[in-house]
C-alpha cells in the first residue's frame, strides 16, 4: 500500500455522520501560531497554518475559547459569547478561518462554555449593579451570607480550582463559582440563560461552524436546598443517582434536548461533544444520545497507565456503552488540561507514585525528577497508534503530533493557570496546566521557535527546538511523520464501528481486527512479539524487522495481497 495513494484518499466527511469516526485536532488558539508577533496566538496564525493541518490529515479542528476574556482561566472565562477577543482577531478573521478550513474539507468545532461566564460579562455586571432580589441577579447563583451582616459564606464549599466556592459582593450576598472567582456560575433555572445560549449556538452555526464542544456539560443544572449541606456532606453524596445538588443532575438533559432542536435546524445538523466528568460510563452515555449532545468525551484512556489490561477493559466497556446508546466512542490521550501523554508515560505508573501526606494524596517527585524522555515518547507513540485504529472518533491535542513533552520548569511568576495559584485539589503535581499550553515550535530556532516574531506568552525551553515542525518534517522516523502516515492510512482503512479481539497468548499484547481486516497490535511489554504471517505491516510506532514487534510498540497490518 503506497503512502502517496493513501494520502490522496478523500476525507469521508460528506455525510451528516462525519463526526462518528473523525480525527479531531484541538487547537489552543493562544499557543498555536502568532501572526502579528505580540506573543499571543491568533486566528490569522491558524489561517497561516491551514496547509499544515491539511497535510497532517485531520478531519476537524476543535478550537478552545477565542472569545473576549480577561484570561482568568485561559479563555474559559468568557465575557462575550458572540465575538472574537480583539487580541486574537475579528469576526472577519473568524470567517476567513472557517472558509480556509472548509476549502480543505476540514470541519470546525468551537468551544461553548455554558456553566459560567466571566465576571466581566454584561449579564454579570448587570447582576451586580441591580442588587439583591433583582431579575438580573437571578441569572446567576446568589445567596445571602451567614452571620449578622452576611459576612460569612453561605457554605464552606471549595471550588474545583481550590479555595472557596462562594465570593462576597459587598452587600451581604455571595455568588457561587465552581471554578475561579472570576467565573460565576449561571442559574439554569432562569429562562434568560437558556435564551442567551440558544442565540449563541445559532450565531456560530450561522457562521458555518460544524459543531460544539460543551464545557463542563455535567455542571449546568443545580438544585440547592434552602439549608445548604456542608462540603463534607456534599462530598459524601451519591454522584450516580442524577440527584446530586451540583453535578450530573438528570434535568441537564432537558437543556441538551433543547439544543438538539437547534442543531437539527441546520443541514447537516450541527454536532456536539460533551465534556462530562461523571462517575460511570453509564452516566456518560446519557450525554451522548442522539436526542442529546450526540457524543461525550471518554477520558478513560487519558487516566489509564500504559497497560494492556487497563486498555482492553476501557476499550471493551466504552464500545459496548456507545453501541447501546447509538453514539460512537471517543478516545483522548492528551488535552489542554492534563500532563502530555509522552511525559505521563515517562514517569513511573501513577499507582506506584501516589503517596499520602497528611490527608492529601500527592505524586512523589516533580515531573522532571524521574522522567524517562525517550521511553515516555516511545510508549506515547505506541498508545497513539493503537488509539487511532479504534472504532469511533479520536481527539488529538496540538503538539502531540510532534511528540512534545510537558514543560515542567515554568517559573511561578510566569505561570497563568488559576489551578496553580489556587492550589486545586486535583492538581497532584502542584504544577497546574501551563506546561501543556506552551506555544508550539514551528522552527528549530529564532524568537519563539517560529511561533511568532517575538517572545511567546509562556516561556519555551531550549529542548523544544529539536521537536519543531521544521526539524521533524523531512524525517521519516519523526513523530510528525508517524502521525501523518497513520492519519492518511486511517482515512483509507476506516470501516464499520466494530472490533474483534484476537487472542495473543500474552497478557501484555493486545490485538484486534476491524471488519475489513485492518489489524492493530500493541505490545505493552518489553519482550518481542512475533506478528505471524497474517497480514502486512503498513505502519508501526517503532521499527519492525522480520515481522517481530518489539516492546512498547504498535503496528497496523492489512491483509496481504493475493
Ligand atoms: C474544562 C476546561 O477544559 C478547562 O480548561 C476549564 O478550566 C474548565 N472547564 C472551566 O471552564
Ligand atoms: Ca498575536
Structure write-up:
This protein is 27% helix and 14% strand. With 562 residues, the protein is α/β, with parallel strands linked by helices. The strands form five sheets. Strands 9-8-7-3-2-1-13-10 form an eight-stranded parallel beta sheet. The longest helix has 18 residues, at 308-325. It is globular. Mean pLDDT is 93; it is low at 1-8 and 351-362. The protein binds 1-deoxynojirimycin and calcium ion. 1-deoxynojirimycin is lined by residues 73, 76, 113, 179, 215-216, 275, 336-337.
Helix count, per DSSP? 17
Strand order in space, largest sheet: 9-8-7-3-2-1-13-10
Strands, count: 20
- Could you describe the largest sheet, including whether it forms a barrel? 8 strands, parallel
**Percent of residues in β-strands:** 5-15%
Rg over C-alpha atoms, rounded to the nearest angstrom: 24 Å
Percentage of helical residues? 25-40%
Give average pLDDT, whole number.
93
Stretches where pLDDT is under 50 for at least 5 consecutive residues are: 1-8, 351-362
Indicate the multimeric state: single chain
Head-to-tail CA distance between termini: 13 Å
Gross morphology is: globular
Structural class: alpha/beta
Which small-molecule ligands are present, each listed once? 1-deoxynojirimycin, calcium ion
Q: In a few lines, what is going on in this structure?
A:
The protein has 562 residues and is of the alpha/beta class. The protein has helices at 3-7, 43-48, 50-56, 91-103, 122-130, 191-206, 231-236, 252-263, 281-285, 300-303, 308-325, 341-344, 350-353, 373-388, 418-422, 469-473, 479-493; strands at 23-27, 60-63, 107-112, 142-144, 166-168, 173-176, 211-214, 271-274, 294-296, 330-332, 354-357, 360-363, 393-397, 500-501, 509-513, 519-523, 529-530, 536-540, 548-549, 553-558. Strand 15 (509-513) and strand 16 (519-523) form a beta hairpin.
Amino acid at each position: 500500500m503506497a503512502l502517496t495513494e493513501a494520502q490522496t484518499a478523500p476525507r469521508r466527511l460528506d455525510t451528516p455522520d462525519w463526526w462518528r469516526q473523525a480525527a479531531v485536532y484541538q487547537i489552543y488558539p493562544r499557543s498555536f501560531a502568532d501572526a502579528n508577533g505580540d506573543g499571543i496566538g491568533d486566528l490569522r496564525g491558524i489561517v497561516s497554518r491551514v496547509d499544515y493541518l491539511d497535510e497532517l490529515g485531520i478531519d476537524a479542528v476543535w478550537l478552545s475559547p477565542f472569545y473576549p476574556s480577561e484570561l482568568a482561566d485561559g479563555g474559559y472565562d468568557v465575557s462575550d459569547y458572540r465575538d472574537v477577543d480583539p487580541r486574537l482577531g475579528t469576526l472577519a478573521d473568524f470567517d476567513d478561518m472557517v472558509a480556509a478550513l472548509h476549502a480543505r474539507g476540514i470541519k470546525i468545532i468551537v468551544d461553548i462554555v455554558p456553566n459560567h461566564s466571566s465576571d466581566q460579562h454584561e449579564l454579570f455586571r448587570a447582576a451586580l449593579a441591580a442588587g439583591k432580589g433583582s431579575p438580573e441577579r437571578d441569572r446567576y447563583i446568589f445567596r445571602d451570607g451567614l452571620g449578622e451582616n452576611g459576612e460569612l459564606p453561605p457554605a464552606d464549599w471549595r471550588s474545583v480550582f481550590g479555595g472557596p466556592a462562594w465570593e462576597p459582593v459587598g452587600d451581604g450576598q455571595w455568588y457561587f463559582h465552581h471554578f475561579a472567582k472570576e467565573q460565576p456560575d449561571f442559574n439554569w433555572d432562569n429562562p434568560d440563560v437558556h435564551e442567551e445560549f440558544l442565540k449563541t449556538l445559532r450565531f456560530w452555526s450561522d457562521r458555518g461552524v460544524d459543531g460544539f464542544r460543551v464545557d463542563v456539560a455535567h455542571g449546568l443544572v443545580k438544585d440547592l436546598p434552602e439549608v445548604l449541606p456542608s462540603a463534607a456532606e456534599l462530598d459524601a453524596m451519591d454522584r450516580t443517582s442524577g440527584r446530586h445538588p451540583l453535578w450530573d443532575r438528570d434535568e441537564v438533559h432537558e437543556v441538551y434536548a433543547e439544543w438538539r432542536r437547534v442543531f437539527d435546524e441546520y443541514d447537516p445538523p450541527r454536532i456536539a461533544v460533551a465534556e462530562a466528568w461523571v462517575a460511570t460510563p453509564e452516566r456518560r452515555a446519557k450525554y451522548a444520545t442522539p436526542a442529546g449532545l450526540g457524543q461525550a468525551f471518554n477520558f478513560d484512556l487519558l487516566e489509564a497507565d500504559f497497560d494492556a489490561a487497563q486498555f482492553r477493559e476501557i476499550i471493551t466497556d466504552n464500545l459496548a456503552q456507545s453501541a447501546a446508546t447509538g453514539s460512537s466512542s471517543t478516545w483522548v490521550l492528551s488535552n489542554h488540561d492534563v500532563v502530555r501523554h509522552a511525559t505521563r508515560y515517562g514517569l513511573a505508573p501513577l499507582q506506584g507514585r501516589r503517596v499520602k501526606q497528611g490527608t492529601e494524596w500527592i505524586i512523589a517527585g516533580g515531573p522532571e525528577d524521574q522522567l524517562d524522555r525517550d521511553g515516555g515518547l516511545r510508549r506515547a507513540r505506541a498508545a497513539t497508534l493503537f488509539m487511532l485504529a479504534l472504532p469511533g472518533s479520536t481527539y488529538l491535542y496540538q503538539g502531540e503530533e510532534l511528540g512534545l513533552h510537558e514543560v515542567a520548569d515554568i517559573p511561578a511568576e510566569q505561570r497563568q493557570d488559576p489551578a496553580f495559584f489556587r492550589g486545586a485539589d486535583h492538581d497532584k503535581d502542584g504544577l497546574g496546566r501551563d506546561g501543556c499550553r506552551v506555544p508550539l515550535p514551528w522552527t528549530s530556532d529564532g524568537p519563539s521557535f517560529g511561533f511568532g516574531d517575538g517572545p511567546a506568552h509562556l516561556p519555551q525551553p531550549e529542548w523544544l527546538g529539536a521537536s519543531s515542525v521544521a526539524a521533524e518534517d523531512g524525517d521519516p522516523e519523526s513523530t510528525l511523520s508517524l502521525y501523518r502516515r497513520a492519519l492518511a492510512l486511517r482515512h483509507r482503512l476506516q470501516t464499520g464501528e466494530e472490533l474483534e479481539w484476537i487472542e495473543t497468548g500474552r497478557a501484555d499484547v493486545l490485538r484486534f481486527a476491524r471488519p475489513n481486516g485492518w489489524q492493530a497490535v500493541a505490545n505493552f511489554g518489553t519482550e518481542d512479539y512475533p506478528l505471524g504471517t497474517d497480514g502486512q505491516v503498513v505502519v508501526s510506532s517503532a521499527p519492525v524487522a522480520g515481522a517481530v514487534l518489539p516492546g512498547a510498540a504498535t503496528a497496523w497490518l492489512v491483509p496481504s495481497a493475493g
